[in-house]
Automatic annotation (TrEMBL):
It comes from Enterococcus rivorum. The lineage of its organism: Bacteria, Bacillati, Bacillota, Bacilli, Lactobacillales. This is 3-sulfolactaldehyde dehydrogenase. Belongs to the aldehyde dehydrogenase family. It comes from the Bacteria. The keyword Oxidoreductase applies. Residues 13-470 form the Aldehyde dehydrogenase domain. The keyword Mitochondrion does not apply. Its EC number is 1.2.1.97. SUPFAM superfamilies: ALDH-like. Part of the sulfo-TAL (or sulfo-SFT) pathway, a D-sulfoquinovose degradation pathway that produces sulfolactate (SL). Catalyzes the oxidation of 3-sulfolactaldehyde (SLA) to sulfolactate (SL).
């Protein structure tokens, strides 16, 4: 993969001015990929200044001009497919299967955003004042800050960057320290597509040095953050004190409910995808599977059998479905949570090996909602099976969590599935499918500790724009 050792500010690649050095490691081999000079607070100031100046002109570009820029961007992304895969594989441990999903949906995000400039619709409203016309305009928010995660660093960055720019905003991006190259690769894509200088700026530095500084910077109109609930709460607190808008996509603790009339084999196959995709390092990954007594044993048997067929290891191997966690620290944390859950009475149905940063699938049964593996977001290929008496208890147990992102229900009675899905306290729910589901034109977002705000389509347009009332008094009023 290409080594990105410079920041991208106002269309110029330049070395960071912090005294700190940052390191980028391969999560599978543990080898150092490269070092680079971190961004300082002055670099952050320069990035915001560039974005603020560029935004004035960018907002004035004609709708078709912005569409043409996005067309060029899509072409560049298509041309760089292999380069993108190499980077995501080496830097984040992504497998070929994970790349196909992330890359494909990134292209869809760009394609959908080509219409956003025509969806910034205002209103003409009547007035109770004689001779007055009321106009409500939808205008860009200004400069949007995007703080990206390590797990899907391309898609979950572009999901905010592209709509923001399509709506006439400019952007400052801070990548995760675990995956900085992905954000600089995005900057290179926009550079190759010919976007004006300052429209996108990328600064990578230590959170302790520039994290809060970025969130509290007066130039930024909105913080779009994807990551852990704990960090999201802190960002919300800092931004809230400044009355700064936020869009927060945070953690999850997804439940799959398997009812007695479900196709158990299909549910087991879906659970493999929902629990193990990208090593379970997905906010929508299945953490708990709730089964009724009559299907419990059959489901466990099928789920274990399908899980044993999954290939684990080197993400460069195209047959591998489960690669490494982002680092060995995370794997050690998983091991500790597993031992705590087993000690509390859980039964091991499938014991996975833990080899450095690689965690093989684990399946636990006899789990209760208060056990560590069930109440925590494991962010690993670990699944807890909880037995419930009936569908009423299934809904109660599924909702008994501080999270509320994406759940699923398996049943042959589609209408019942739909009605039960309405009772789940989550932003998204899927009947006869697993929880890792994303369509760039459909609303995406969570409830409770899983986040604030909505992505995609009209929802993201509304979030990344603001409405302004202008009245025109056509005859003398006074």
């Amino acid at each position: 993969m290409k080594h990105y050792t410079e920041q991208f500010i106002n269309g110029v690649w330049q070395e960071g001015t912090s005294t700190s050095l940052m390191e980028n490691y391969n999560p599978f081999t543990g080898e150092l990929i490269y070092r680079y000079q971190a961004a300082s607070q002055q670099d952050v100031d320069d990035a915001y200044q560039a974005a603020q100046i560029a935004q004035i002109q960018w907002a004035k570009t004609l709708p078709e001009e912005r569409k043409d820029y996005l067309k060029k961007l899509a072409t560049i992304v298509a041309d760089m497919e292999q380069e993108i895969f190499d980077l995501l594989c080496e830097e984040s441990g992504g497998t070929k299967a994970k790349f196909a999903f992330e890359y494909g949906d990134t292209l869809k995000v760009i394609d959908d955003a080509m219409a956003y400039h025509m969806m910034m619709n205002g209103k003409i409203m009547p007035s109770n004042v004689l001779g007055k016309d009321n106009y409500v305009y939808k205008i860009p928010k200004g400069v949007i800050t995007v703080i990206a995660p390590f797990n899907f660093p391309l898609l979950l960055s572009m999901r905010s960057i592209v709509p923001a720019i399509a709506c006439g905003n400019t952007v400052v991006v801070k990548p995760s320290s675990e995956t900085p190259g992905s954000a600089f690769l995005i900057a290179e894509m926009f550079e190759k597509a010919g976007f004006p200088k300052g429209v996108i700026n990328v600064v990578a530095g230590r959170g302790s040095e520039i994290g809060d500084y970025i969130v509290s910077h007066p130039t930024s109109s909105l913080i779009s953050f994807t990551g852990s609930t704990e960090v999201g709460q802190h960002i919300g607190k800092v931004a809230g004190e400044l009355l700064k808008d936020v869009s927060l996509e945070l953690g999850g603790n997804q439940a799959m409910i398997v009812l007695e009339d479900a196709d158990v084999d299909q549910a087991a196959k879906a659970a493999v995808i929902g629990a193990y995709s990208h090593q379970g390092q997905i906010c929508m990954a299945i953490n708990r599977i709730l089964v009724t007594p009559n299907v419990r044993d059959q489901f466990i048997k099928s789920f274990v059998a399908y899980s044993k067929e999954v290939k684990v290891g080197d993400p460069t191997d195209e047959e591998v479905f489960i690669g490494p966690l982002i680092n060995e620290r995370q794997a050690q944390k998983v091991a500790e949570n597993l031992q705590a859950t087993i000690k509390a009475g859980a039964k091991v149905e499938l014991e996975g090996k833990i080899e450095k940063s690689v965690v093989h699938p684990w399946i636990l049964s006899n789990v209760t909602n208060d056990m560590c593996a069930a109440k925590c977001e494991m962010f690993a290929p670990v699944c807890s099976i909880i037995t419930v008496k009936n569908e009423e208890e299934a809904i109660k147990v599924a909702n008994d969590t501080e999270y509320g992102l994406s759940n699923s229900i398996f049943t042959k009675d589609l209408y019942k599935g739909l009605e039960l899905a309405k009772q789940l306290h989550s932003g998204m729910a899927h009947v006869n499918d697993q929880s890792i589901t994303h369509e760039p034109h459909v609303m995406f977002g969570g409830e409770k500790y899983s986040g604030v705000g909505r992505f995609n389509g009209q929802w993201v347009i509304d979030k990344f724009t603001t409405e302004k009332w202008i009245s025109v008094q056509k005859i003398d009023r006074y």
